[in-house]
Amino acid sequence: MKRHLSILLVLVLLVSTFLPNTAHAEGDGNIDHGGGGMGSGTSENYWNSGNEGVRITVVRESDRATVTTPIDFSNKTPSVSVHFGKVSKIAYTNGHGISPTTSTYTCLKPALSMPRIISSGSGQASIEQIKSYFTDELVIRYIAQVTGMNYDVLINGEYKLLLEPIAYITFQGVKMAMTATEAALYDQKLGGGLRSKMVSLSHKNLPLAMFLEVSDLGYPAWSGSRSSSASNVDIISFLGIGVVRFKEKPDEQPEVTAWDYEYRVNTDVITSVTVRGGQSDPDHPVTVRFNIGGRTYTVSGVYYPEGDSQLVWVRWRTPSTPQTMTINVSVSGSGSASKGTITAKIVDLSGNDPPNPVADDRNDGYTKPSVPSKEQKTSASWGVWRPWWHEYWVWHSGDDDEDGWWEDEGWWEFDWDAYHASLSASISITPDSKVPTASGKTMGSGYGINQSTTANVSTNQSSAVTDAQNAVTYFPEFQYQTHWRLLERTQSGYSSKFEFTSNKYSTYKRRTHFTPVWMPNGSYTPYTWLIDCWTPSGMLSMNLTDSVNIQGSVWDDWHIAPVKPD
Predict the structure, then answer these.
(1) Is the pLDDT of residue 12 over 60?
(2) What is the largest CA-CA distance in the chain?
(3) Does 250 have pLDDT greater than 80?
(4) Contacts within 8 Å (CB) and 24+ apart, 392-396
């Protein structure tokens, strides 16, 4: 079938910038780039070379948490009517939704001008100059000043700078500011509307302005094309990101994981791959097959436009015993899968309950630990390309005027059907009802506590989203590490409930956890990781905590009277 694509490219002005010599380098830049020439634009959709900036966020390396509000640098004072707020790529990865706003846009114009960031027909950006600029001591000191970070703290090796290129564009006549990640997320909402008008910028030169040389902050290094337009999925996952780190790691290697997924036993899960290559439509369809545990799952009718991709997934249940499984993925048609072989590690979290507490337990060296924070993702989005036929009837003349015929020489167009899921939850830790002297949430040490955790899942594609199926609670007396309780799901579905299992050491077989009798007065805080709400774009999970107040101990409630003489 014939397909006609009207691609409006971008007007380029000859504007160049230069980087002056500055002070010595302070950080190490994990940044690379690509890109290429630009085309011409229209009065409604265009970008001028040099209308660019960089979003900067300070990130703590240990838990990949953002510790400052993102700030934007630009050599210009851009006129912006619509933007998406000061949101980092990490925030979007963790489920922050894309939301345009007309509030006043602010950016900083550094005294030391930035080098060219986005390549264009008027000139290529220099990755060496970009690295030199963002690892320069004077620039780092300025970043520390405007973000409110102490300079010495910033460079002590515990923090990194997350860099994201920004483009200031005119789209549909509206002046906008967006990072590469925001461009991809926005294009998904528009069903490909941004890509169709500004592909050379939004899906090539902007996202390829920065990407990682080695994996960092949970983002993989980019090994794809440096000169072709990228799909929304690849931009969100790989592109439009640079990292500056402040600790020498001469032996650092790219991050290697022994498995692609970690699942729990007896759990409904979703395994996904991304398919790309050519165009898949009803005339040239793609079929994906997953071979899992000797069973083949077939996903047919996988469609996507040329230059883009489609997430393909299968829902299945893990076996009842721990093991490592190999999942083979095959593709028939024009596409190729992002993974031909997937390794899934199946683990069992049960069987590690705390030991029996006894009355003479002691822990004189106890220090109160910090509450951990595991991976948390409370929302996810994905979508499915839906092809439709664009009719284009053409009259073909025959040998004479009466022998002609009409022929449909149309082409396939694609709409994007967007889907989403979100997870919310609450936790309640209370003294067990058998505690005789409890008052509200205050109790003595040595008594038991109860836990109730509720989880709620919301989605517009229930076939692709599982319940929240597991919850694990860790305790401060074990430094939140060596022992834990896998909670029992007492209510299933998208509104589920979790509680302690029956405690074999409880006289009444209560759903309880006994606090150690030596626990000092103060806040006692169990920590719960709610997990296994699976979506095509990964697992949703939450960190939950609640506390009771320890005052005194079980011994305070016992009175031993003297024996009366005969």
Answers:
(1) no
(2) 135
(3) no
(4) 392/2, 392/4
DSSP per residue over 423-438, as a string? EEEEEEEEE-TT-TT-
pLDDT tops 90 at residue 298: yes
Position 172 confidence tier, pLDDT thresholds 50, 70, 90: very high
- DSSP notation for 62-112: TTTEE-S--EEE-SS----SBB--S--HHHHHTTPPP--B-SPP--B--SS
Provide the residue type at 537 as one letter.
S
- Measured distance between the N- and C-terminal CA atoms of the chain, rounded to whole angstroms: 110
| Residue 185 phi, psi (nearest 5) | -65, -40
User: Which is nearest to 522 in space by CA: 476, 474, 472?
Assistant: 476
399 falls in which pLDDT band (50, 70, 90)?
Answer: confident
Work out the pLDDT band at 6, boundaries 50, 70, 90: very low
- Are 487 and 500 in contact, with CB atoms under 8 Å apart? yes
Task: Kindly give, in sequence order, each residue whose CB lies less than 8 Å from that of residue 29, ignoring residues fewer than 6 positions away.
Answer: 130, 131, 134, 135, 242, 243, 244
SS (H, E, C) 173-221: CEEEEEEHHHHHHHHHHCCCHHHHHHHHHHHHHCHHHCECCCCECCECC
Whether this model's pTM surpasses 0.85: no
In which band, very low, low, confident or very high, does the pLDDT at 101 lie, cut at 50, 70 and 90?
very high
pLDDT at 543 over 80: yes
Asked whether the predicted pLDDT for residue 255 surpasses 60, the reply is no
Give the DSSP letter of residue 446.
T
Average pLDDT over residues 470-482: 96
Q: Which two tokens stand for residue 512?
A: 């309880």
Residue 25 has pLDDT above 50, yes or no: no
d(CA 46, CA 67) in angstroms, rounded, equals 35
Helix (H, G, I), strand (E, B) or coil at 554: helix
Residues whose CB falls within 8 Å of the CB of residue 485, separated by 6 or more in sequence, listed in order: 353, 354, 472, 473, 500, 501, 513
Give me the residues paired with residue 406 across strands. 395
Q: Kindly tell me the burial class for residue 222, based on how many C-beta atoms sit within 10 Å of its own C-beta (0-12, 13-18, 19 or more).
A: buried
Name the nearest CA neighbour of 76 among 205, 175, 146: 175
